[in-house]
Specification:
mainly beta; 11-stranded antiparallel sheet; 11 strands; globular
Length: about 220
Amino acid sequence: MIAFSTDGYFLEPGGRGPHIHTMCGQHLVPGAISPNSGKPLLLVATLDLRDPALGTRPSAVERLHLLYSWTCPISEGLFSYRETTSGVQLLQVKKGAPIADFPYPEYPAFFPEFDVSLRRLTDHEQGVIAKLNRQEGDPILLEHTFPLLAVPRSQVGGEPRLLQWPLHSCVCEGCGQTMRLLASIGNANESELGFTGNEFVQMLFHFCDSCSIVTAENLTD
């Protein structure tokens, strides 16, 4: 089972500090194209790995693009890619025909970009999330008392709210070592329906600092 880092941070809209993190946006990252549709992959977030809050070791890249696709079979399995200074190399992709009108009709090619700041989870918030994940205490009461913690939110580090428990680790395709869970992305962005139109769907991004490899997956309730 995966081990979580000590400090977790919610990605909250607004604010800009010395390290710039963004969510969504149009991109021109070389290689970040779905082989199933021939269209650019969905840019979920861009993280500045130089930010010490992320807890990453020195990597070959300074800015990491979190990429995914909901409109082709990539979302049906593990999706892995390596990010380099010259673009993205796709490593593991489930192939198949594009999916029409999924996750919802007229799904956009990209969502508008917005800045996000990191807000550290309090010990109390982290404790509530851990109890919800493990179904400890009275989970129904916890969900009613802390509705904002009961659904997945966009978060880096720490233990995120997870829609399936336990969460098993991913192994890096480059070095064979266990990858760290870098980010959990909930449904919300600055569009009306969000990434999937369902707040009980989340994207997880595992990262190997040494190889600059990302493995992404999704969980549903």
